[in-house]
């Protein structure tokens, strides 16, 4: 049984709000991104997932590590954790929902309870730093 889910996520902030996505059939929002495929680097996963989910192109030269966070994985059995490695990056294009994404939203700290547990940790850090209103 998988005990840790390895995910890569994009942190994209505008005007004190963070870009978040809600997947088909899910009741919470997640930062855009996903799990790596065999042999992929973090950058490979980030660029592939963001293109698939949001139809935008990450600009590889601007990618910066933001942090790595761990929490109980939302919707999984107790003890299954998610390790989410987050990056900031510039992009080309306008984010629109694609693939399994039903909705794209710009959330603030007031939306903290509407996101997954690992995203709540990230929201706290961004809010404390004054980046998420």
Characterize the structure shown.
This protein is globular. The longest helix is centred in the middle third of the chain and has 13 residues, at 42-54. The protein has 133 residues and is an alpha+beta fold. The model has no long low-confidence stretch (mean pLDDT 97). A hairpin with an 8-residue loop joins strand 6 (64-72) and strand 7. It has helices at 42-54, 117-128, and strands spanning 4-11, 13-14, 17-23, 33-35, 57-58, 64-72, 81-88, 91-92, 101-107. The strands form three sheets. A four-stranded mixed beta sheet has the order 4-1-7-6.
Q: What's the short version?
A:
This protein is 19% helix and 36% strand. The protein is of the alpha+beta class and 133 residues long.
Our estimate of the beta-strand percent is 35-45%
Quickly count the helices: 2
**Gap between N and C termini, in Å?**
38 Å
Report helical residue fraction: 10-25%
Structural class: alpha+beta
| Shape category | globular
Number of strands: 9
Radius of gyration, Cα only, in angstroms? 14 Å
Low-confidence stretches: none
In spatial order, strands of the major sheet run 4-1-7-6
The major beta sheet can be summarized as:
4 strands, mixed
Estimate the mean pLDDT confidence.
97
Q: Helix-strand pattern, N to C?
A: EEEEHEEEEEH
Oligomer: single chain
